[in-house]
């Protein structure tokens, strides 16, 4: 049996080298995520971003013809069926691996990846000028978790998985949030994108890691990039709802910043299709408050809210503030598009 360790030693035997040029945005979607995708991409365009967008989907059953026409005509999006490419014509990409495959297949060199649940706060093209990107040729944001300190259920198995390839991760290293990132492909080793795809496509991988998010770090180490894998220096802040009666702040999303500029919101625990759930708790807003700096958090079950990120110490409440004009205006924009599309996608 050919193992993943064997494949990454000779990655070109399994996927060919590709060439890339230009700037653009890539994403992936499906029937399940189309509502969120339309909301997110409309907000991006409203923020003034004119970059071309490539949207990848797993197979012919994952996006309707009507949705493809809508994306292409109203948002200038090129829709690409993963199975239309020879190397993937039999592959089922209905999992996290579609992100790695999209990154490998996308035509762009200077690439911005955005998950369907990313809410833009700025024109994303501005991010190519940020200091971290110009120095390192990539931007990855930190997750709220870290190795050996603030761990999630998969942190230890991820660490062991990396060690199985001879890659050590120092204690305290923040984990990676891969909901949005920038990457100049022509500044990375040509095997990086192949190795990342092979790791994500291996049937054993997702039993040991939480999705794709730590595989970029591993892929970088395995192909000896001249530029080391980095994340931005600051952890994300939280944004969510404050329940006054319970004196409880429930962060349902994270807020990413770079160069002291807030970039986007990653809706990590509640997406736009939650507006009709939990007794219509989200009908008027997803967010009432945000934290002005990263704070200590814990994950716990808060009924009836499902799993929420909550502030861990009362001391941290002093860093919580009501939404300012920028965040409130993007929430208004969010609900404008939710109301525009919800009758077609919410049942």
Main sheet record: 8 strands, antiparallel
| Helical amount | 25-40%
Distance between the termini: 45 Å
Spans with pLDDT under 50 lasting ≥5 residues? Answer: none
Task: Count all strands and give the number.
Answer: 14
Structural class: alpha+beta
What is the overall pLDDT average? 93
Note the run of SSEs as H and E. HEHEHEHEEHEHEHHEEEEEEEH
Return Rg in Å: 20 Å
| Range of strand content | 15-25%
**What's the helix count?**
9
Overall geometric form: globular
In brief:
The protein is an alpha+beta fold.
Question: How would you characterize this protein structure?
Answer:
The chain is α+β, with helices and mostly antiparallel strands and 347 residues long. Helix content is 27%, strand content 24%. The N and C termini lie far apart (45 Å). The model has no long low-confidence stretch (mean pLDDT 93).
Which descriptors would you attach to this protein?
6-stranded mixed beta sheet, 14 strands
How are the secondary structure elements laid out?
Blueprint: H1 4-9, E1 23-28, H2 34-46, E2 53-57, H3 65-75, E3 77-81, H4 97-105, E4 110-114, E5 118-120, H5 131-136, E6 138-146, H6 155-163, E7 174-184, H7 192-201, H8 215-222, E8 237-243, E9 248-258, E10 261-266, E11 289-291, E12 297-301, E13 307-311, E14 320-322, H9 325-345
Parallel strand pairs: 1-2, 1-4, 2-3
Antiparallel strand pairs: 4-7, 5-10, 6-7, 8-9, 8-11, 9-10, 9-13, 11-14, 12-13
